[in-house]
Design goal:
The protein has 870 residues and is an alpha+beta fold. The chain contains 26 helices and 34 strands.
Length: 870
């Protein structure tokens, strides 16, 4: 190698300091933009370029910006027209509004978000709205990084607002993402290094994916289908959300929502939500969540939840509906009712919810951006206005029922309410007439209720228990009779209610009716009562020999009663499942309330905790194995093989050493992997250790891959022996130790050591203010089971992984501030199990909805960062 070649190599490999690069960039910018900058600081969208046209024509624009504008107008028809109009003086240049850098939330999410605004206020049926309409062209909606239009001549950057001609290939650069909006309103989110082009086919639009990953939110296709074509498969949909990954080895399709047809050669299959298929059998299966984990939508999703949490906080401050003690409408429901639900009229709550929403809409950029993007927003608001007006005509209670016979035949739903304001029929007639004029199909029919007797030829009475055959043969019917409104799907149903109004039944003191009356006696706000005995026996009757049967013990269910009401300013939720006689089988796994010592190993900083007192772990394992054998005849053979290889009987060997006290907790950092722990009471540590050793040996004996054998090691630290199970195949380890009659297990020794120290010093969850503030005031000392969550403390660190904007950060902070701990607890008694909570509906809240998505996004970014470092 001569000296010249060596010098070239040295220069090529020489690193340039960052400060020198920045200084060079400053010098270039100084030469290009020597004049005063006019217009936006960055030129990314058509709106930015059109904003500098006046300066360009007045020759006050810098030379660099003038060159950029000239280059852009050669390719952009809209900006070229704007430049021509500005030159001719035909009128002011039309500035297109720039789209904020975020992906449009689907119409299904819009409806779900509005439902969250009125969560806990009642149940309302909302019909699916008309699908989104496109503007007739494919365009770039948002770009994060660089999106190129590629051709044989090279690659040209394109920006948001740019129209994409049919057949034009577009490609995202490294660390770049983009959202393309198709002519029909469908959205295609492109991951980095992805390439596609859009075309028309005989039966609809087609996205041809050459490489990379996309997520498609397909608009409802009125005719034809939307197809995604790769080199080895075709994906066809009518309207759904799915992901397609195209790589060197093949393609993978994952379904998030709806149904997707995937054709590969002569074979095709239909996928449902959560399903996934690959064109190469050697490709490792993942999950639908993994397939969309790269999406940039999480920050916006959490920010919107934060805005809704503010609205919800305002709704929670409203006076709750008064408790109802009068069960007079119970006399009007059918004798064979198997489901009875009662909710308060929420007209005033809808008014307040709408006021709070509009008030927040004026204050929040995040909420306003989302609302402006929803094409169905005004329609949804109009629907809420009509619901509110409609509710003003009704009394304080709305009752919903379903009836059925012992052969598994069920009637259509029946809805009843008192009328407190005149002219309801006039209001409904006007609304139904408007629906007819708009071309709606199956418009409800408004009729007058008429009582009929059994001798009048009424098919309702003539067909008796088989009347299900006539309850769904027409559109929804609304019947009015004096001060009662009844909604059903068959005239006979309505006539039956009219008959009972005229001649109320006096024998309503047993079965389901007795439970409903007792609930009203305690005071009812939201009430659901279900005849589980009827449903359980019907399932057995209809199932047949080969159909799955109910788990042992659950066939003795009788009634499920769910109540939610406010007492002394506190919201109480309670669900009680009663049984015929003493609980047995799987229904008896949960023990009566008792102290749970395993909770002492959980710190006050825990994010999630589930703890249960069980009767007999050995008995539970036996029930599980028997149930699995009933479902799969080959399971028993596999179980016998495990027993033969390990030299033990799994059920007694695992169950006998255990006590009845078990806790699972997420207690510590959530990233990069959650800090989980399992704590179980152990009567015989030596026997449990012997069982673990035997299972490890049995696994290694049957292992069929190199490097996947397990290693079981131990290390003495002070007076405790820490055990480790590891493998060369996986970097993950399981650590465990026996402490004072408990088995403590987790992903690291430091986590176990910290749990032991916290227990010794009294720094435990059960003594923390956050936990004790959620305890009920019912005088009971112990529980049979608890589920505790305190997600607000971890939302902040997780949200930082997603790099939200300033406006989104404020909204996420509101979500964190409005996130409070929650506790769900259970009491198991001889013939019933009661599950209860205070505040949120059995622990369901906006933050619990957000956490799984947030963890997945943050962990995905951590893994991606680690991969780059490697």
């Amino acid at each position: 190698m001569d000296k010249l070649e060596q010098a070239i190599i040295d220069v090529a490999n020489q690193g340039i300091p960052d400060n020198e690069l920045e200084q060079a960039a400053d010098r270039v910018r100084g030469k290009l933009f020597v004049q005063t900058r006019t217009g936006p600081e960055r030129l990314r969208s058509c709106a930015d370029f059109q904003a500098i046209i006046p300066a360009y024509l007045q020759k006050t624009l810098s030379a660099g910006r003038a060159l950029l504008l000239q280059d852009h107008t050669r390719e952009c028809v809209a900006c070229r027209h704007a430049l021509s109009e500005a030159r001719s003086g035909a009128g002011p240049t039309l500035i297109r509004p720039s789209t904020p850098p975020s992906r449009v939330i689907s119409k299904a999410w819009a409806i779900a978000a509005m439902a969250a605004v009125t969560a806990g206020l009642g149940v309302w049926g909302v019909s699916k709205l008309v699908g989104p309409q496109g503007n007739g062209e494919t365009s770039v909606q948002t770009v994060s990084g660089i999106l190129y239009a590629v051709s044989d001549k090279g690659a040209t950057p394109i920006f948001s607002g740019k129209t994409i001609p049919e057949g034009q290939r577009v490609r995202t650069a490294r660390d770049s993402k983009a959202v393309v909006k198709m002519a029909d309103g469908s959205l295609v989110e492109m991951n980095e290094r992805s390439e596609l082009w859009v075309s028309r086919t005989d039966h609809g639009a087609a996205i041809r994916l050459d490489r990379g990953n996309i997520i498609v939110q397909a608009a409802k296709q009125r005719t034809g289908t939307l197809d995604v074509l790769t080199a080895d498969c075709t994906v066809s949909v009518k309207g759904t959300i799915f992901a397609v990954d195209r790589g060197t080895r093949g393609s993978r399709v994952s379904v998030v929502e709806g149904s997707v047809k995937v054709a590969q050669g002569s074979k095709s299959e239909m996928l449902k939500p959560g399903d996934q298929v690959s064109t190469d059998a050697s490709l490792t299966q993942s999950t639908a969540a993994d397939a969309v984990s790269w999406s940039r939508d999480s920050s916006r999703y959490l920010a919107l939840l934060g805005e809704l949490s503010i609205i919800k906080k305002g709704l929670d401050a409203m006076p709750s509906p008064a408790l109802r003690h009068d069960a007079k409408m119970l006399d009007y429901v059918p004798d064979d009712t198997i489901l009875y639900a009662s909710i308060p009229n929420v007209g005033s709550a809808l008014t307040e919810a709408q006021r709070l929403f509009h008030e927040r809409l004026q204050e929040s950029a995040v909420l306003k951006t989302w609302w402006d993007e929803q094409k169905d927003g005004p329609k949804l608001e109009e629907m809420i206005n009509k619901l509110r007006t409609f509710s003003d005509y009704l009394g304080d209670e709305i009752v919903f029922t379903v009836s059925g016979d012992w052969e598994g035949n069920y009637t259509a739903p029946l809805l009843m309410a008192e009328i407190k304001k005149p002219n309801l029929d006039v209001f409904l007639n006007n609304e139904l007439r408007q629906l007819s004029l708009q071309g709606a199909k199956n418009v409800p029919e408004l009729v007058q209720l008429q009582a009929k007797t059994a001798d009048s030829g009424n098919s309702y009475y003539r067909r008796g228990k088989h009347r299900n055959t006539v309850t769904t043969d027409g559109p929804m019917t609304i019947g009015i009779n004096g001060n009662m409104m009844v909604v059903g799907w068959n005239q006979d149903q309505l006539n039956g209610v009219a008959q009972r109004i005229a001649q109320p039944s006096g024998n309503r003191d047993g079965g389901l009716f007795a439970n409903v009356k007792q609930a009203y006696g305690r005071g009812a706000a939201y009430l659901l009562c279900v005849n589980m005995e009827h449903i359980a026996r019907t399932s057995v009757h209809k199932g047949g020999q080969d159909s799955p049967k109910l788990p042992t013990g659950l066939e003795a269910m009788r009634y499920l009663i769910v109540e939610r009401k406010d007492i002394a300013g506190a919201t109480e939720n309670q669900a009680t499942l009663t049984f015929e006689g003493r609980r047995s089988g799987m229904a008896a796994w949960m023990a009566e309330p008792s102290a749970m010592g395993s909770l002492e190993f959980v710190s006050p900083n825990a994010t999630f905790v589930a703890s249960v007192a069980t009767r007999s772990p050995s008995w539970m394992l036996g029930d599980i194995f028997r149930a699995m054998s009933d479902q799969n005849p080959k399971f028993e053979e596999k179980l016998e093989e495990i027993n033969r290889q390990s030299g033990l009987r799994l059920s007694p060997s695992l169950g006998d050493p255990l006590g009845g006290d078990i806790t699972f907790a997420i207690d510590g950092p959530l990233l990069p992997l959650p800090s989980w722990k399992i704590v179980a009471e152990v009567y015989s540590p030596d026997k449990m250790q012997w069982t673990i050793d035997q299972l490890v040996n049995a696994f290694n004996t049957s292992a069929k891959c190199d490097g996947c054998a397990l290693r079981s090691t131990s290390e003495q630290v002070g007076d405790k022996t820490f055990h480790i199970i590891s493998s060369d195949q996986f970097s993950y380890e399981i650590h465990y130790v026996f402490v004072d009659g408990y088995l403590l297990m987790g992903p690291s020794r430091s986590l176990l050591t910290r749990a032991i120290q916290n227990r010794e010093t009294g720094l435990v969850l059960s003594r923390s203010d956050a936990f004790r503030s959620q305890l009920p005031r019912d005088g009971r000392l112990n529980f049979s089971a608890i589920v505790y969550h305190n997600i607000g403390a971890v939302l902040g660190p997780l949200a930082k992984q997603l790099s939200p904007s300033n406006a989104q950060q404020q909204s996420i902070q509101a979500l964190i501030a409005n996130s409070t701990p929650g506790l769900v607890y259970a009491y198991a008694e001889a013939d019933r199990i009661t599950v209860a909570s205070t505040g949120t509906f059995f622990g369901l809240d906006l933050n619990s909805v957000a956490l799984p998505n947030l963890i997945g996004q943050a962990m995905g970014q951590k893994v991606k960062a680690a991969t780059r470092i490697q």
